[in-house]
Structures are given as C-alpha cells and as structure tokens.
Amino acid sequence: MSAFPETHRRRFLLGTGALGATALLSGCLANEPPQQQNQNAVATGGDNAAPGRHVTIGFSAPAADHGWLAAMTTNARDQAEQFPDVTLEATEGSSDVNQQIAQVETLINAQVDVLVLLPADGKALTAVARRAMRADIPVINVDRVFDSEDAYRCWIGGDNYGMGVNAAGYIAAELERRGVTDPVIAEIAGTDSLPLTQQRSAGFRDGLAEHGLEVTRRVAADFTAESGERETTNLLQAASRLDAVWNHDDDQGIGVLAAVESAGRDEFFLVGGAGSRQMMDRIKAGNSVVRATVLYNPSMCSSAISLARLLAQARGMADLAEHEIPRSITTYSAVVTRENVDQYLDVGFAS
User: Fold this and answer.
1) Which pLDDT does position 47 carry in this prediction?
2) Exposed/middle/buried for residue 29 (C-beta within 10 Å: 0-12, 13-18, 19+)
3) Domains detected in the chain
C-alpha cells in the first residue's frame, strides 16, 4: 500500500481545508501592496518535504489482527521511511490496554520527540497520553479519541457519522436511478457497543431520512469475517427480498459476501465501508452485488506521521498560512464507485 510520498497525495490526505485556506489567503493578498504580500508569504509553512532537524517519533497502535489496523501500522512505518530526518520507534502492537500503556511509558522514558498514538481504548489511554504531554512530548492522537483534549496536541481521524451519511446518499441515488419504490434497505453494522458504530448508524439513518427512506432491517456484527458471515446469513434468512445493503466494514464484508454467495442472492446491491482493495477490485469488475464502498482510510496514519514530523520540527503545513499544524483534522469519507475506483486503488488496503 502506498505511503503517499508525493506532494499531491499528502495534500489530498490532509483534506480540502488547505485548499480553502490558500484560496482565502490569495484573495486577501490580491489588494495588498507588494511589500505586504511578501511579508505574508513568509508566514506560510514552507516546503514540508525539505529536510529539517532529525526527530524521533514514537508509535503505538493495537495489534494488527484486522486488515484496517494492520494497514494503519504499515502506513505509519512506510511513511516514516520517506523522511531521512525521521527515526520511528514503533512498539509491538497490542490490544491489551495495560500492555499498550506500558509500551507508551517506555517511549516516554526514552524521551522521543513526539508520539503518534492509536489507542486500543481512548478512555483507558488518556492518562498516559496526558503524562507524555506533561513531559513536553506532544501527542498526535489517531482516530480513537482520548477522553480529554489536554491529552493530545493534534487529533486526526475519520468521519464515522459522515460515512453513514454518504452511504445513505449513494443508496438513495442508486435506488432512484433503478426506479425502486418502497425499498427494503438493510444495514449490517459493526459492534453496537462502540461509539463509532453508533455514529455510523446515526449518519446512515439521518442520511436516509433526508430522502424519505429508512432502514428496514438491521443486524450487528463484530468487525470480523466470521461475525459478518453469521449475521448476514441470519439477515438473508429473515428477509426474502432486499433492495440495498450497507455493510459498515470491508473486513467483516469478506464474511458478508460469503453468506450472500452461499445463499445465491443477487437481487440487491451492496455498499461497503472503509475501502479495502478486495472490495475495490469487485467494484471495478462489476460482477458482484458490491457497487460501492465508503472510505474510512488508514492513510490517516500516514498523515499522522507527517504531522508528527512537522510538529517536532516546529513547522506548519505548507499549504496553510498558520505557523503550526492544526488542532484537529477529520478525513473525508469519499464514496468509491466503478466510475472513480481507479482514483482510489492506491489507498485500498488488504482485508
């Protein structure tokens, strides 16, 4: 999977905010005298690719027992290798909260310059992240947010609610294109106890409501292929007809599709979630029920490493007028379809 060293990819990963800031700055400069324009230009972040002082980045994430999590760690390592001025000190991934806390404490004691933390449990890791901040080791919090804002300098993560909204928007448009009235819409959620699942479901529900639609049938899996197959089998047995299905997670989607193919069902279309390469390949081939997937891309971990480097080097982002990196960045959940899949193949991860 690409580590996105090219400038245009970095700008894409860090969102459209940079473009907006640049446009706004250009508009403000247009009416200023040349001398003032030059002074303002100096205030921008500069060339982020230019080498800076050498920094050591500590990295900690859960065990890579899920395709998306494995891709997060892979992306972090690959991105760090793009910078000759970065040394990455990565701990062995662990989903045991106490073990991850101990690993982070080791990184703090080693006096790394900055920490990139994807917590197994944001609440449980808050105290040790705050300890790092008090030790003047800034923290980049990835995705699963800590309980307190003083536990991190910058948060970067996905838009769970936006995933649901965008999945709903695609489904509504496709149903209209197909001329389906009174549709049966199913949702295969992730683990219901997790806030991210609740947010995705809320976005999906609200997004459908905007089009006068609603979820007809819903099951919840556990983000694994096994649970996806089990719950989808139950869903298909209970529903003799389906028109559209949104599956929250492409890793559990392996099991979802196994159940669909075993049942011989193809009267509906399916939208995935996260953006695995396997789902993108199916979308491109156009020979299965999979018609789209909504990104929740592990490229955010590549961006987290880039942000950590800039933070440790006291630099801002080149496309922003600010001297410092932002406080938070929310990635965009683009909908990948057969029409645009080639644009996103390089960010697809292995389930």
Assistant:
1) 85
2) middle
3) 7-115+298-320 (3.40.50), 160-295 (3.40.50.2300)
